[in-house]
Amino acid sequence: SSKYRRKEISEISRFFRANSQMWIVFGLTAVCSMAITLFPKNIIYYTKYELDDVALGGTALILLTVGKAVSQLLWIKIAAIAGKKKGLQVAHVSLALLLIGFYLTVHLSIWLFLLYVFLIGCAVGGIYMLNWAILPDIIEYGEWKTGIRIEATVFGLFTLLNKVSIGLGVFMLSLLLGMAGFEANKAQTPQAADAISLLMCLLPTLGSFVSLMLLGRYKISEEAHDQMVENLEKRKRPSLS
Fold first, then answer.
1. How many angstroms separate the CA atoms of 160 and 133, rounded?
2. Could you read off the pLDDT of 77-113 as tens digits, one per residue?
C-alpha cells in the first residue's frame, strides 16, 4: 500500500541521514573507483607507446589480476590482526608508495615494471576487498543509531556508485589524455607520453591520499564495532521482568 511505501521511504531516509559513517565509506569507494582505475586503463598505453611492446600489456594485466587474487589471504590476515580500518590504511599507503616508486624507477628494467605491476595488484586487491568488508559495519552502525536495519539498499547503492565512479574515471582519463594531445595509433608527443605516466601513477596516488584523509574520519574501530554489536544484541534480548 501507499501508506507502507511512505513508511519505508521515511525509514530509509532516516537511516541515511543518521549514518555519517556510511557517507565516508561511499566517499572512499567513489574516490578509489575513479582514481585507481586509471592505472590498469593506462597499462596498455604505457606498454605500447613507452615500452613499444603491445604484447607486454596483456602480460601486465594478467599479473595485476593475479596480484589482486593471491593477496586476499594476506589482507584477511592483516584485517584480523589490525582491524579493517587499519588494514585499509596499510593498503592505501602501500599503493601510494608503489605508484611513486613505479613513476620514478620503472624505466630501469622490464622485470622491475612487471614486479611493480604485480605488487600494485596486491595493494589494489586489499583496497577493493576491505572496502566491501566494512559495508556490514556501517549497516550495523545505522541500526545502532536509528533502530532500522537496511541492507539491500545500501549494497545496491554501493554497487551502483562503484560502477558510476569507474565510468567517470574512464571519462576523466579520455578527457585528460585528449587535452595532453594523445592520439591513438600514432607517435605520441612528449607531453602526451608524460601524461600517460602521470595519469597512471600520480592521480591514483592522490586518490589514496584523499582516502587516507577520509579514513581519518571513520570512527568504527574493531573495539567500537564490538561494543555496538553488544548493544544491539541487548536491545533484541527479551526482558525477563
1. 17
2. 999 999 999 999 999 999 999 999 999 998 888 999 9
Check if the beta carbon of residue 154 is closer than 8 Å to that of residue 139: yes
Outline where DSSP puts E strands in 12-141: none
Amino acid residing at 28? L
Cell of 46: 604505457
Long-range CB pairs of 114-118, under 8 A, 24+ apart, other chains included? 114/59, 114/60, 114/63, 117/43, 117/60, 117/63, 117/64, 117/67, 118/63, 118/64, 118/66, 118/67
Q: Residues 111-129: pLDDT tens digits?
A: 999 999 999 999 999 999 9
241 pLDDT higher than 50: no
Measured distance CA(189)–CA(180) in Å, rounded: 9
Taking phi over 0 as left and psi of -120 to 50 as alpha, with beta for the rest, 185 belongs to: left
7 pLDDT above the threshold of 90: no
**Neighbour count for residue 17 (Cβ, 10 Å):** 12
